Amino acid sequence: MEDLFGADGSASQFMDHAVTLVMTYAPKVVLAIVTLIIGMWLINRFVAILDKKLGQKDPTLNKFLCGLINALLKVLLLISVASMVGIATTSFIAVIGAAGLAVGLALQGSLANFAGGVLILIFKPFKVGDTIEAQGFLGAVKEISILYTIIDTFDNRRIVIPNGQLANASLTNVSIYDTRRCDMTFGIGYGDDIDKAKQVIKQCLEEDERVLPEPAPRIAVGSLGDSSVNIIVRPWTKTDDLWPVYWDMHEKIKKAFDREGISIPFPQRDVHLYKEE
């Protein structure tokens, strides 16, 4: 033991120094741990209440804002806990700043997504609940988070798109207006009566309550095809009724044409056989 600690009582000095350190820092460490636990609980509780209150007023903003506030408050809590233990706050902030710079350089794409999320919230090209078409996907916006926007498609798929791509590319907001025009085209034979066909189409539109009287539906010859006269049909409907009207009208007008003897041409090929003599 004398060889290990020396003969001058260095072991006793070491123990005294250890006890002094424990007596000095143990209360600080315990207090810091308690503060960290309580602080995390309070932050989570506050963010949950904010999410609930803000979600009732602005579902588009709440997920993004709550995530940002949650991250900032936890960073401030960690700085406070570090200062309680005895770590110099200025040094700690400098370390965080240097680490933040390194992480920022490594995660430039994530920072671009964060900036894209801020731009989406400021300019609001869409909001939660809107139906949009972007990056080759069509669906309803479920959530706008700090880095990503979540879209649920109509065939029950969940698509996650980075905010940076949404902010820097074109997109279509399908549901921003209450009404939409339903574009359809029906072909009839060159030997059929155009006026009769237009009257049949008009009657089908008038019988459907989902077709709006104003603006009035447009029915006109759109083009002369290789084998058909193409009639364009442009009724207006409520946005939610667009596709049901589109599908139903194709069935109703086809049946009406059959009853009235109006033909719908289809591609066909004539084969002529010649007998060699």
TrEMBL record:
Every Mechanosensitive ion channel MscS domain range: 110-175
Transmembrane helix among keywords: yes
Domain named Mechanosensitive ion channel MscS C-terminal: residues: 184-264
Keyword field: Cell inner membrane, Cell membrane, Ion channel, Ion transport, Membrane, Transmembrane, Transmembrane helix, Transport
Lineage top rank: taxon: Bacteria
Residue stretches spanning the membrane: 25-43, 64-87, 93-123
Location(s) in or outside the cell: Cell inner membrane; Cell membrane
Membrane topology per record: Multi-pass membrane protein
UniProt xrefs under PANTHER family: SMALL-CONDUCTANCE MECHANOSENSITIVE CHANNEL
Protein family: Belongs to the MscS (TC 1.A.23) family.
Protein function: Mechanosensitive channel that participates in the regulation of osmotic pressure changes within the cell, opening in response to stretch forces in the membrane lipid bilayer, without the need for other proteins. Contributes to normal resistance to hypoosmotic shock. Forms an ion channel of 1.0 nanosiemens conductance with a slight preference for anions.
Subunit structure of this chain's protein: Homoheptamer.
Protein name: Small-conductance mechanosensitive channel
Organism for this UniProt entry: Marinobacter koreensis
Classification of source organism: Bacteria, Pseudomonadati, Pseudomonadota, Gammaproteobacteria, Pseudomonadales
